[in-house]
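User: Show me a protein chain along with its predicted structure.
Assistant: Here is one chain, sequence first, then structure tokens.
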Amino acid sequence: MSKVHVFSHPLIQHKLSIMRNKDTGCKEFRELLDEISMLMVYEVTRDFPTEEIDVETPICTAKCQVLAGKPIGIIPILRAGLGMVDGILELVPNAKVGHIGLYRDPKTLEPVEYYCKLPEDAEHRQLIVLDPMLATGGSASAAIGFLKKRGCSNIRLVNLIAAPEGIARVQKDHPDVDIYVAAQDEHLNEHGYIVPGLGDAGDRLFGTK
């Protein structure tokens, strides 16, 4: 079973509290999501491997550590996942960015892929899938499945807020994929929204309804 990592860092929790407020506007919402994403990726990459190299400082030769594992790929799920990309690129500027677009079939309620553009070497990268809200888990599970069908296997899922139902779905479908969240909320309501949540992240990011 995959692990669920919940980040309790005071800065993350403080910024998330402001994002939850219904009176927080688009500009501030975007800035806060950007900042939280940056703070989260610091923790998501904590166990990435390093190797020792020699660096010439102005004083002498020093033994230093640099990243040594697979190169990183960032995969936002359209559209809300786009709001998490820039914050992560601030810390990992050499990462390549792919995109997965999904919509829910109104009859079957199952996610349908309408767009997928990945780095050419995606199967050789450590992929970080981004979506602010993990509600039912259908979209995240489908996106991960699409990546696996394309040969990708090193995948981590990063969400701002998750419902227990979404976590259970991803763990059931993809027990090899760890989940990283800023908060695990109570449940889903009858409309599929996370409670207490923060509403529709995409609408709040882009000012749409």
